[in-house]
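Predict the 3D structure for this chain.
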Amino acid sequence: MTVEEHQILGGVGGTIAEILVQNHPVPQEMVAIHDTFGQSGKAQELLEYYNLTTEGIVQATLRANARAHAS
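Done. Predicted structure below.
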């Protein structure tokens, strides 16, 4: 699970995914801003807009956990 407050492309999540797939394949969930133009606003508004809130991170964790236990 990686959480980044910027674009998902070229982020740390991709780097970690490359390492994991070579050494220890596991389900990974990357929470970040998907390929889109950025918005302007207050910090909390932007976190909510991009689903980078506690609830968004919890939901992503549950998705990754479900995939890990599905196989």
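The helical segments are 12-23, 43-49, 54-70.
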